[in-house]
Amino acid sequence: MKLATIALDGAAVPALVRDGAAFPFASLAPDLPASIEALLAGGDAAMARLRRAADRAGEAIPLDQARLLAPLTRPSKLLGIGFNYSSHVEEVRAKGIPIPDLSNQIWFNKQVSAIAGPFDPIHLPASSEQLDYECELGIVIGRRCRHVAAADARKVIAGYLVANDVSVRDWQLKAPTATLGKSFDTHAPIGPWITTADEVATPDDLAIRTLVDGTVVQDGRTSELVNGIDAMIAYLTQVMTLEPGDILLTGTPSGVAAGRNPPAWLREGQVVRVEIEGLGHIENRVVAEPLDQTSFIQ
Q1: Would you say 271 and 285 are in contact if contact means Cβ atoms under 8 Å apart?
Q2: Nearest to 185 by CA among 289, 264, 69, 286
Q3: Which run of H or of E encompasses 138?
Q4: If you count Cβ atoms within 10 Å of the first and of the last residue's Cβ in the chain, which end, N or C, has fewer?
Q5: Residue 43 to residues 12, 37, 113, 244: CA-CA distances in angstroms?
Q6: Are the CB atoms for 67 and 7 separated by under 8 Å?
Q7: For 57-61, 183-187, 219-223, which range has the lowest pLDDT when averaged over its residues?
Q8: What are the residue boundaries of the structural domains of the chain, listed by start?
Q9: Nearest 5°: CA angle at 87, between 85 and 89?
Q10: pLDDT tens across 199-226, in order?
Q11: Under CATH, which number does the domain 78-291 receive?
Q12: Can you give the residue ranges of the Fumarylacetoacetase-like C-terminal domain (predicted)?
């Protein structure tokens, strides 16, 4: 199944995507959850209700007429991992940047306020010109879990989505955690929906790429992962409890703007498209950070 959030009558509503249309949950069955977050929190029982309702006739909104929002907006965690594609490790090494000990996974927080919709604009910050892209496979956690063995990791995955780990490189280097440079508003566009895990047979061998203004700048496969999906979940859950709806970003292949000579930072007006085989694509235009939003108190 493909699980989306759409804008409908001024509200964000969950919808099932099939046959080129979005079907709001409420039009399929009255007892379905009112958000994707609530669906995941409801566990197997909620998912079973949705599966039973999935083939019913409901209100069909053609996808070309639907506004797709971020499928999840406030997960308890949005985590990213660095240096997790072999080609990107070599790209960074070629720039003369020291590579950390990769026997330890390099995780960082990306604040959830960075989440944006799959076709929303990305802000070029007022405080930096070093705006970069990173195509990434996103894992959506479906079960509350801790101390998960690698062999059991797939049992806790609800599904997968397309993500762009937009990065502001000078801010990223201000501190070892990288969190500030990864957390600017709008710098985590995700979507276009969550494809449930049962429909993704080989998440560890999918084509993934980024295009800027139609030109391919990143082109890889998730088979390049230094730490695979199972290893990532096993490693993280030694430390923390993962909750339904948490999102893990799994790294990026070579071709980032910072890896080019000279760096090819994103500019205002450019369009960044991230595609993952079988999962769809997201596409975001770079706009100047709105001046009326750079300073406010509410």
Answers
A1: yes
A2: 289
A3: strand 135-141
A4: C
A5: 21, 10, 25, 8
A6: yes
A7: 57-61
A8: 2-69, 78-291
A9: 70
A10: 999 999 999 999 999 999 999 999 999 9
A11: 3.90.850.10
A12: 78-287
